[in-house]
Inverse folding.
């Protein structure tokens, strides 16, 4: 097959827009699908064709294999890109695509099945000589678990074989806690994944999360494209990713890369994939799992390698050979990505869906934004609240941080709350600057509740003048915006009565003290 | 025109300013803060919606406004402030000032979502900060608290109802 004529994107949000852009660049027609609440979503109007696929609930739309394949047939799409999330790691979907004669842009169902279960992945990897966190490679009875825990040494982690996302996971500090943790983990696993199979791993203290991007074509070639460090996480969700990792040198990169390639080859892996490792304080790395999809954080790899991973995915899926060899892959510079979410960092990261009333995006040297939103878009409450990915690229890590801080200052979102302030906090933190990070780093930073830097009097005074100017402008303009402004101000009064009285008193005090 | 403005920083520190804006006959904008003329020249433009470009002398400031929340927010550089603007001549402002914490207070939805639980049904005596109603959005729950000590007079949304940001959900008196 030369290439595809038309690709259906079985996704929404920024990744749908990302793939549509690649299609446009390659001269391939794009087909969007959308749920009822996404008629006005960005990906619908960026695509060449768009088809409604049902209600907001994902299982009736973006997760509905029959509906998506029906659209593919009707639109005569010859390939489907699943993006990430939704159906991207669903082997059943990959198989259904194959049956329907539509190319699934990703690995084969067989490779996904091997990687889908943590225990079966572990057996395959052990055969390939891949380093693992010491522990068991299969589901265990309580007695077996006690034996394995004794052998590898406490503390240990109990994990659900079919699991993910922290469900069915228990940290066990000593032998006396094992029984209750085992029972808790296996019943939680049974409820969440329909399988009570539980296995054990030695608990690595303060590990880093470093992953390797791999790419395979359908002619047996597999390469690695360097690593990404994703240690800045909150509740097992990545918040900031960067490439390369500050602690990985050439030699370690080669060892990790070659291991990742072995992992991929042992599963007959094709297309884009990511091999995740835990790295301990002595820089030992252990296989964690393989993600059989394009990752959210793929842009940082694109920037430091100069490659376009979505272009590559499409070409490789069309049967082409990888257009380069391992020794032609060179890393250059440093890239950092911030995941911008509609959530309120001042209110325990509560999601903040709603209408984006004003949006100003950063630009300029070394800044890339992969966004799925626009000014006026109503962020629906039905899906993941990620709005956009902001990526900074510079010759050094230090300059990439400075560049990202500059871009964050240019970024303005009104109407909904975002986690933009969180990134300032991290990027200014001394530990982050010196790359002293691990998967517990962010929770510790947040718990430390660093006193927010004292606001300057000058800025407060300018804010006061600004507020007066806005009020005056509204008075002059009249009309709709005026009503909005008055509302805002009136609301402020209603909720802030207590402070108001104090404020009035403090004015009086200051007036009294004035020389 | 004089505006009485309270600016609250992120750390909770509040300061009040009296800002007087006037335009001379030849159109020059003048600004006095707490009775003192802003020195070194002053100019302000509104080149884009919700954006003011302000020059104090030759210091340049980009000031942004966010009207969407319960409170008016003004952003200067990377600092975000809550601004409470009162035109002292307006009747509304004087009333609100006198109002203090007396009278009925509404609890409004801070974001769109679904009502999942009523913690304090009508007639329940509540303390300030006590939970009254729980709403859920994107699979996360948020407990809305009473703004004052009193009695829940009215619940305006049933369990299961979809609500929009700003919708009144309950009244505490």
């Amino acid at each position: 097959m030369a290439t595809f004529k038309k690709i259906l994107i079985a996704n929404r949000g920024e990744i749908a827009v990302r793939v549509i852009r690649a299609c446009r660049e390659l001269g391939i027609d794009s087909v969007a699908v959308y749920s009822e609440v996404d008629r006005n979503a960005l990906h619908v109007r960026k695509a060449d064709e768009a088809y409604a696929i049902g209600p907001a609930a994902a299982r009736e739309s973006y997760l509905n294999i029959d509906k998506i394949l029906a659209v593919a047939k009707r639109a005569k799409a010859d390939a489907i890109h699943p993006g990430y999330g939704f159906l991207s790691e669903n082997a059943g979907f990959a198989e259904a695509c194959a049956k329907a004669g539509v190319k699934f842009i990703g690995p084969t169902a067989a490779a996904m099945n091997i990687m889908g279960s943590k225990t079966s992945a572990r057996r395959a990897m052990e055969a390939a000589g891949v380093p693992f966190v010491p522990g068991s490679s299969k589901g265990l009875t309580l007695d077996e678990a006690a034996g394995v825990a004794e052998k590898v040494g406490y503390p240990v982690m109990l994990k659900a074989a079919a699991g993910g996302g922290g469900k069915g996971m228990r940290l066990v500090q000593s032998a006396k806690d094992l029984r209750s943790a085992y029972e808790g983990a296996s019943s939680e696993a049974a409820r969440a994944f329909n399988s009570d199979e539980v296995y054990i791993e030695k608990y690595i203290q303060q590990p880093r999360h470093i992953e390797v991007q791999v790419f395979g074509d359908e002619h047996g070639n597999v390469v690695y494209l360097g690593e990404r460090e994703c240690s800045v996480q909150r509740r097992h969700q990545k918040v900031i990713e960067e490439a390369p990792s500050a602690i990985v040198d050439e030699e370690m990169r080669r060892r990790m890369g070659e291991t990742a390639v072995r992992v991929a080859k042992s599963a007959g892996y094709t297309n884009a994939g990511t091999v995740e490792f835990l790295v301990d304080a002595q820089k030992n790395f252990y296989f964690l799992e393989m993600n059989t999809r394009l990752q959210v954080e793929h842009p940082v790899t694109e920037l430091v390698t100069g490659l376009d991973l979505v272009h590559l995915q499409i070409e490789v899926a069309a049967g082409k050979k990888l257009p380069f060899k391992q020794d032609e892959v060179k890393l250059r510079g440093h890239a950092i990505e911030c995941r911008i979410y509609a959530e309120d960092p001042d209110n325990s990261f509560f999601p903040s869906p709603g209408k984006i009333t004003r949006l100003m995006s950063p630009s300029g040297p070394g800044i890339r934004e992969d966004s799925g939103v626009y000014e006026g878009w109503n962020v629906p409450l039905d899906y993941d609240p990620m709005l956009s990915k902001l990526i900074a690229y510079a010759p050094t890590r230090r300059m990439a941080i400075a560049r990202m801080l500059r871009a964050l200052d240019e970024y303005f979102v009104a109407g909904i709350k975002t986690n933009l302030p969180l990134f300032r906090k991290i990027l200014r933190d001394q530990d982050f600057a010196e790359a002293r990070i691990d998967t517990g780093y962010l929770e510790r930073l947040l718990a430390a509740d660093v006193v927010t830097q004292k606001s300057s009097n000058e800025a407060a005074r300018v804010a006061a003048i600004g507020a007066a100017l806005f009020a005056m402008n509204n008075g002059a303009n009249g009309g709709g915006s005026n009503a909005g402004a008055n509302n805002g101000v009136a609301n402020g009064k209603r909720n802030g009565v207590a402070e108001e009285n104090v404020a009035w008193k403090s004015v009086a005090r200051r007036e009294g003290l004035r020389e | 025109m004089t505006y009485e403005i309270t600016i609250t920083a992120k750390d909770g520190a509040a300061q009040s300013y009296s800002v007087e804006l006037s335009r001379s006959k030849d159109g020059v904008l003048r600004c006095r803060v707490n009775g003192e003329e802003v020195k070194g020249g002053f100019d302000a433009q509104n080149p884009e919606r919700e954006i003011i470009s302000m020059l104090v002398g030759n210091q340049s400031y980009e000031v942004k406004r966010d009207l969407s929340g319960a409170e008016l927010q003004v952003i200067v550089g990377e600092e975000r402030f809550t601004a409470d603007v009162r035109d002292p001549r307006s009747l509304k402002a004087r009333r609100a000032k006198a109002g203090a914490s007396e009278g009925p207070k509404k609890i409004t939805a801070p974001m769109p979502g679904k009502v999942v639980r009523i913690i304090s049904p009508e007639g329940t005596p509540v303390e300030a900060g006590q939970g009254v109603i729980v709403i859920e959005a994107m699979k996360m729950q948020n407990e809305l608290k009473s703004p004052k000590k009193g009695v829940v007079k009215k619940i305006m949304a049933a369990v299961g109802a979809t609500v929009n940001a700003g919708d009144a959900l309950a009244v505490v008196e």
Observations:
- Chain A has four domains: 6-105, 134-202, 208-448, 457-508.
